[in-house]
Each structure stands twice: as structure tokens, then as C-alpha cells.
Amino acid sequence: MKQLTILDWVVRVDVEATKQYYRNLPDYSEACGCDQCKNFVLGFQMLPDPIRSFFTELGVDPRYNAGELYGMMYNGDGTYLYGGWCHIAGELVDGADCKIPVPERLGKGFTFHLVHVNEDHSDLRVGFTRDLVLVRNDFPQPILQLEYNLSVPWVLDSTPE
Q1: Strands 9-13 vs 79-94: parallel, antiparallel or unpaired
Q2: For each of the chain's 161 residues, which pLDDT tens digit applies?
Q3: Is this structure's pTM higher than 0.70?
Q4: How do the domains of the chain map onto residue ranges?
Q5: How far apart are CA 161 and CA 50, in angstroms?
Q6: C-alpha distances in angstroms, 8 versus 50, 90, 114, 127, 150?
Q7: Which candidate, 81, 83, 114, places its Cα nearest to that of 100?
């Protein structure tokens, strides 16, 4: 396991186990097939190296179906805002869990505290949580969940919804 300090968190990750797991998964264009997923798979490749490298350093390829991906909105500037989460073989060593319960007086639910990765690429916001959702049974243990929001260029010929 490799220990990394990433923004507000210290994580311990097994990069090779995570990479190996992602190699055997379908990408979101195959797993879902909607325009938003197809666009994410193609548009992600056009993102600047620092954004793609952030995921690679953790062993993650967010184009592949080891978590969840959802389209949020067309930004009007040629990009589409996505949210999602990826699973990583690893653990949170230090830092607050990014999943925050909503105060009871406001109802049931939660929100996320996501942090901009850097000022030059502020459209990538991330956080780490121990609260795992939609984990595949054979994912390598221990498991950490990376939450993210990310704007990706809209590259399909279709009009984004």
C-alpha cells in the first residue's frame, strides 16, 4: 500500500490492485449506453493531464464501471457537469469523511464536502468517504470511495440534455 496526502486527506491505497480490477470492467458507454455516459468516456480523454493524472495516481479510471456516474447538467460552455464515485483498494488514514449528514431539523439525507483539486483545474472537486455504495462483491479489500464532480467537454454530435 502507498500512503498519499491528497488535499485534506491522507489515504493508503493499493494502486496496482485497483488498476488490475478496473482493467476487467466495461466502460460506461458499454455498461449504460446513454449519451451522457458515452460522452464521458470520450470527453474524459480530452481533459488536461493534471486531471487525468489525479485519478491515475490512485489506480482509478473513472470511465470504467466501478462505482457510479451521473450527468448533472450542460454548463453552456461546451462542457457537461458529471458527478460520481469510484472505488479504490485502500483506506482513509486521516481527514474528515466527505459525506456529511444533513441536520435532522432539515430532514433526512446528506451532502458532500468536495474540495477543488487545484486552482488551474477547478472543475474537478473530490472527497473521500468510508460510506460505501454499490460496491461489487469481488472488489479488493479494504475499500475507499472517491466522490467527485467534474466538467467534461461535450464531444458527441447529439445535443446535450
Answers
A1: antiparallel
A2: 999 999 899 999 999 999 999 988 888 888 888 899 999 999 999 998 888 999 999 999 988 887 889 999 999 899 999 999 999 999 999 999 989 877 776 777 777 888 888 766 558 999 999 999 999 999 999 999 999 999 999 999 988 87
A3: yes
A4: 2-153
A5: 28
A6: 18, 16, 10, 9, 18
A7: 114
